[in-house]
Amino acid sequence: MVEERKKLVELKNIDLIFNKGKRNANKAINNVSFDIYEGETFGLVGESGSGKTTIGRAILKLYDKDIDSGEILFDGKNVINLKGEELKEFRAEAQMIFQDPQASLNGRMRVKDVIAEGLDVNGLAKSAQERDAIVESLVNLVGLNKDHLTRYPHEFSGGQRQRIGIARALAVKPKFIVADEPISALDVSIQAQVVNLLKDIQKQENLTYLFIAHDLSMVKYISDRIGVMHWGKMLEIGTSDEVYNNPIHPYTKSLLSSIPAPDPISEWERTPLVYDPTTELDGQERELREIVPGHFVYSTEDEAEEYRRMAV
Ligand SMILES: Nc1ncnc2c1ncn2[C@@H]1O[C@H](COP(=O)(O)OP(=O)(O)OP(=O)(O)O)[C@@H](O)[C@H]1O
C-alpha cells in the first residue's frame, strides 16, 4: 500500500563527512538511502551520535557544507541545487522542531512575534490584522490561548514551549517537518500530549514527518515506518509493527531489549541483549536487503539468506 504513495523526500546513497580531509574527519552519514512518503511519519532511531540529527539537518540543507556524495530530492527536486526563489520556497515547505524549545525560541521576543517570525520573513501576511488572525488560529491549533500571545517563552512550561515551537514551524504552511527529539526534554506525563498533538496536526494539515528519537516506545506509537541507525549507517527499515514485533538486525534487537517493560513481571524477565558492533568492521560488503516485503536489513547476501530462512 505504502509503495503506491508519492515520495516527498528521497535520500540516495548519502555520505556526509565532518572535517573532511582533517585528522578529526568523521563520516557521520555512511551511504544512507531511504524515502519518506507524503503523509507518513518516518521514525529515525539509534543511540546518541549515530547520525540521526545529521540526516535531518542535511535534508533541510541547514549545514554550510553540502553532502559529500549522493542525492537528496525534495518533491522531486535536488535540494543541493536549490537557489533564490526555489530555496526560499523550500525553506518554508520544510521546517524543523527542536528538542529543547527553551534554546530554540528567542527569549526576548513575545510569543506572538516568535510564532509570526516565519510569516514576517516570507511576507506571508498582507496586513497586521491578517498576521494577528493567522497567529491566533495557530495558537488555537496547538492548544494555547490568546492570552499567551503577549508573554515571553520563559513564562511557559516545557510542554507549552514545545507547542509554541510547533506553532512557529506551522506558520509558514510547511509540507514536511523534521521533529528532532521533540519530546525528550519533556516530563513523561506531557510527552504523550505533544505526540498526540503532532499526530492530530499531521492529519489536519496533511504533513509528512521525520521523527527523530531514541525513546523507542514513543517512536513506535507515532511512526508508520522506522529506520534504525548505528555509526552513520542505516541497519534496518520496516513498518513500525514489523520492526517492533519482528526485529531482525542484532542491533535493533538490542535496542528493543533495553526498553523497560511496563509491568513488573515482564520487567523482571526482561534480558537486555548486548550488541557486538565488531561485525560491522569485518570488511564484508553489506547493503540494505529486503528480507520480507518492505522490511530491509543491512546484511551480506549470506546473512540476508539466513534472515529470510529465520523469518519464514
Ligand atoms: N557540526 C559538526 N561538526 C563535527 N562533527 C559533528 C557535527 N555535528 C555532528 N557531528 C558528529 O557526527 C556524528 C553524528 O552526530 P548526530 O548529532 O547526527 O547524531 P545523533 O544520532 O543525532 O545523536 P544525538 O541523539 O546525540 O543528537 C557524531 O559523531 C557527532 O559528533
From TrEMBL:
GO molecular-function term, one example from the UniProt record: ATP hydrolysis activity
Topology in the lipid bilayer: Peripheral membrane protein
Subcellular location per the Swiss-Prot or TrEMBL entry: Cell membrane
InterPro entries with a match to the protein in the record: AAA+_ATPase, ABC_transp_ATP-bind, ABC_transporter-like_ATP-bd, ABC_transporter-like_CS, Oligopep_ABC_C, P-loop_NTPase
GO process annotations (BP): peptide transport; protein transport; transmembrane transport
Pfam families tied to this protein: ABC_tran (PF00005), oligo_HPY (PF08352)
SMART domains attached to this UniProt entry: AAA
Gene3D superfamilies registered for this protein in UniProt: P-loop containing nucleotide triphosphate hydrolases
Cellular component terms per the entry's GO annotation: plasma membrane
UniProt keyword terms in alphabetical order: ATP-binding, Nucleotide-binding, Peptide transport, Protein transport, Transport
Occurrences of domain ABC transporter (ranges): 11-256
Signal sequence extent: none
Family under the similarity heading: Belongs to the ABC transporter superfamily.
Name this polypeptide is given: Oligopeptide ABC transporter ATP-binding protein
Organism: Lactococcus termiticola
Gene responsible for this protein: oppF
